[in-house]
Amino acid sequence: MNTLFISHGAPSLALEPGKTGAMLAALGQTLPRPDAILVVSAHWDTSQPRISAATQPDTIHDFGGFPRAMYEMQYPAPGAPALADIVAESLAAQGMAVEVDPVRGLDHGAWVPLMLMYPEADIPVTQLSIQSHAGPRAHYRLGQALAGLQAHRVMLLCSGAITHNLHDFFSADRDAQVLDYVPAFSGWMAEKIAAGDVEALLDYRRQAPGGIRAHPHEDHLMPLFVALGAAQGKAVRHTPEHTFGILAMDAYVWHQGA
After folding, report:
1. Which helix (H) or strand (E) holds 252?
2. What is the CA radius of gyration of the chain?
């Protein structure tokens, strides 16, 4: 199975999929079909790891100020309580405390990309939370603890953003001119991912151009470090577009055995 990192962009990606939506749809059609999906989303941030065991996860509309159609969207995929048990056991085996949440649904960091990749909503899915206060290395280790899931035909979908500074939001134009630091930062990240330079990536806030500006809060980059820890094989970078002048919509797919 594959490990993915997806820049999910604004929730309105579900209404205005653009080139990113086309890329996600193509991945859903071409990647090996998983038996279940584990999503690590930037939008579930907890003090310690939590895994959802919901049998029918609700579609969480965790945003405001968007068109009514956004709040009417549903992604009625079945839950994956058996996968939740495997995840809890895998983390516990590595000495990581994990709590099981019996009802947590799918936030937009999960259901928006999944709606574009698997619109039939027929693959069981659950979510694992991040702990943004813990930093990159803790999430890299979290990913390492999850690496064995691929043997269970589980896709690991890590959903965040390669750049995410909403303080720099200056335009509602999806095709606004891109601020210079955005491609500089995403390009540096791409170089280090391609080189397998994990230590540089973990130290991105000091080493990357515009590191702190690209992520004044680290929540949206933490899923990438989970993917880096779990991934096997070489990463393939997809760069469909930039949106709103500040969001690089980069995605990475690690193909096992590549």
Report:
1. strand 251-254
2. 17
Nearest to 116 by CA among 43, 12, 32, 14: 14
Neighbours of 71 (CB within 10 A): 13
pTM of the model: 0.96
* Contact (Cβ atoms closer than 8 angstroms) between residue 147 and residue 230: yes
The 10s digit of each residue's pLDDT in 108-159 is: 999 999 999 999 999 999 999 999 999 999 999 999 999 999 888 999 999 9
Structure confidence by residue, pLDDT tens digits, 165-175: 999 999 999 99
Report the phi/psi class of residue 250: left, alpha or beta, with left for phi > 0 and alpha for psi in -120 to 50.
beta
What is the SS3 assignment for 178-222?
CCCHHHHHHHHHHHHHHHCCHHHHHCHHHHCCCHHHHCCCCCCCH
Gap between the Cα atoms of 21 and 15, Å rounded: 10
C-alpha distance from residue 89 to each of 84, 123, 213 (Å): 9, 22, 37
Residue 258, classified by CB atoms within 10 Å of its CB into exposed (0-12), middle (13-18) or buried (19+), is exposed
